[in-house]
Amino acid sequence: MPTYETMSYHLETRRLTLRPWAESDAAEFSALLSERGNGRPTVEYARTSIGKLLAATAETGIALLPVQRREEGDFIGYCGLIIGRSTLEEPEIAYELFQRAHGRGYATEAAGAVLDAAVATGRERLWSTVGAWNTPSLRVLEKLGFERDHVSTDDSGEVVWLTRSLLP
Prior knowledge:
alpha+beta, three-stranded antiparallel beta sheet, 4 helices, five-stranded antiparallel beta sheet, 8 strands
């Protein structure tokens, strides 16, 4: 099995900073998760989730990172690599931003930085799984060169599986 470099946990773009999780992110993480419409998770739940994310990062060498706007310094969501429905060799790119941050290119900008970080680990391919209803996320992935591979179904409906080669 090939070995991969550890993903960089500090990424900067023109407008964004992606960095490791801190316990102080728990309240905003909880607020972000509540935008999914399934109730508001407690701050304690978010804190526990952050602990699990940090442990997964230490174990796998890949990370889901908080996204902050550089100028404003505010937490607007997360973006990074996860095992998710895929594998450590070919992880998934994942992102979620506050609705107030939608439509400004932040997801594309953050995911582009994560793509570059994934290339630097030596991986050859990434996946992404997105609800078929989520047109904005599908557009972000299309801009980043992801292509549809297949569609499956889960409890919440159709899931589009997309892939992108990281080879030159």
